[in-house]
Amino acid sequence: MNQPILGCIADDLTGATDLANNLVRAGMRVLLVIDAPDGDVPLDADGVVVALKSRTIPAPQAVAQSLHSCRWLRRQGVRHIYFKICSTFDSTPKGNIGPVIEALMDELGCPFSAVVPAFPDNDRTVYKGHLFVGDVLLSESGMRNHPLNPMTDSNLVRFLELQLNSASRRKTGRIDYASVAASADAIGARITALRAAGVSIAIADTLNNGDLHRLAAALRDDLLVTAGSGLAIGLPAQWGFQASLTSAQLPPAKGRRAIVAGSCSAATNAQVLRFLEGRGSAFALDPMHLAAASIAPVEQALLWAEKCWSGNASEPLLVYSTSPPEAVRATHQRLGVERSGELVEQALAAIARELVQRGVGRLVVAGGETAGVCIRALEIDRMRIGPQIDPGVPWCYAAAPHLPLGGVHLALKSGNFGSTDFFTKAFSYLDQPAKAAP
Fold first, then answer.
1. Distance, CA of 237 to chain centre
2. Residue 296: which pLDDT band, with cuts at 50, 70 and 90?
3. How confident is the model at residue 437 (pLDDT cuts 50, 70, 90)?
4. Which runs of consecutive H residues, i.e. helices, occur in 285-336?
5. What are phi and psi of 363, to 5 degrees?
6. Which listed site, 14, 98, 223, 367, has its alpha carbon 20 to 30 Å from 56?
7. What angle do CA 365, 367, 372 make, to 5 degrees?
8. What is the mean pLDDT of residues 289-305?
9. Cα(391)–Cα(74) distance, integer angstroms
10. Measuring CA to CA, how many Å separate 98 from each of 124, 292, 400?
11. Are the beta carbons of 413 and 364 closer than 8 angstroms?
């Protein structure tokens, strides 16, 4: 039994699967656990990813959960800690990214942390400290309308500075693109210069996967790194791992197929629309109906599902609360952001649990918050990572003896990820043999 090399702390569940996906594709055996256990357990894996639900909770709670996870991972013998953040830097001027970074630096005694949010495979790049989504600045993308963390500033150096504790006197800076594009040695020299200038936390410019590999080489010995999932494509090779044909194999899939979508991102809105245009069977949840009668819409959705399956048991079904920005704003004005989100999450979690009890063995969940509540409703505490569907989105498998089929295959999709036809193509990937990453 090998001792894990890498311990990862992810601030949401879809981000955790996104990170684990890239590590597996690069040849590591990865265990994903939901929250850090209280006791020590044997870990036969090269990397361990702890999935938290800490992205949008109050910063002190996010710090406490992250520190608990870090201490648990260190007791398991990991040599490196990877704080996984969203590639669109989802947070507010008060946190939670900055406070967690500082708490981990204090815990580990680290004088410096590089921050590498970019994920070029999903069109997230950083140049001169500014985050781009495709060809537009983050502040001009759909993230400006995010219901919980609207991102209106693309300058991550400036934005992160706002989140730091003024008492710590830590400064932010930038690992410039000239250094990143040159070599790992040039990156190391730039970090040395930043530290000499009093910088403790630095955003790395990153435009392509070659940049990620050079950054991985430069940061391979660091005790703490902060990054999106992109950096994970390069780190395993630094420790001698190679892509494997068997690293993403899962048990054969069985059971009914369903999709639960709670994200209101532009990408998920497009995926829902594409599914509807293809005449897929779908049930829309309205937060106002949930507020009026929280149980009835859930029961209606389940009765609708049974009726659909009575005609075609293999038909994939979609239950969604996904709405365009104007509809989300109207709901928030009437119910409030917290109340409307809580109603939808509770309803979707109850529906996901009951669908699996009714024989769903292949479940797609869209949205980080939605994925977190659904997994907890299913009482799943760990998963194996399987084949990639789209960049950042793999199939996973959770063995769970308390479920009717003894386990369930899951695709937990970040709201911003996936091609427009994701909901229609995802299920076909379970029938294909695993392939090594290119």
1. 22
2. confident
3. very low
4. 287-292, 296-311, 325-335
5. -130, 125
6. 223
7. 75
8. 88
9. 29
10. 20, 39, 36
11. yes
Strand spans (E) along 205-271: 224-227, 256-261
Selection from 422, 412, 423 nearest residue 390 by Cα:
422
Q: Write the CA distances from 222 to 80, 81, 358, 409, integer angstroms.
A: 7, 8, 47, 34
Question: In the prediction, which pLDDT does 42 show?
Answer: 76
Mean pLDDT, range 270-274, rounded to an integer = 97
Radius of gyration from C-alpha coordinates of the chain: 21
DSSP letter string over 238-266?
HTT----SSTT--PPP-SEEEEEE---SH
pLDDT at position 317 = 98
**What pLDDT shows up at residue 164?**
95
Look-up: residue for tokens 């930038």? 174
Closest listed residue to residue 155, CA positions, set 141, 167, 139: 139
- Determine the residue type at 256: R
Say what the pTM is.
0.83
Is there a contact between 17 and 390 (Cβ–Cβ < 8 Å)? Answer: no
- Six-digit token pair at 152? 């209106």
Cα–Cα dist 38/425, whole Å: 39
Pair of tokens at residue 90: 């989802």
What is the predicted pLDDT for the residue at 292?
Answer: 86
pLDDT for residue 146? 77
* d(C-alpha 246, C-alpha 235), whole Å: 19
- What is the pLDDT confidence band of residue 246, given thresholds at 50, 70 and 90? confident
Helix (H) or strand (E) segment spanning residue 282: strand 281-284
75: its two tokens: 């007791």
Question: Does residue 203 surpass a pLDDT of 70?
Answer: yes
pLDDT value, residue 436: 43
Domains and CATH numbers, the chain: 6-238 (3.40.50.10840), 256-431 (3.40.980.20)
pLDDT > 90 fraction of the chain, expressed in percent and rounded:
78
How much of the chain is in helix, strand and coil states, percent to nearest 5? Answer: 45, 20, 35
Report the chain's mean pLDDT, rounded to a whole number. Answer: 92
Structure tokens at 182: 């040159």
CA distances from 62 to 70, 98, 221, 269 (A): 12, 11, 26, 29
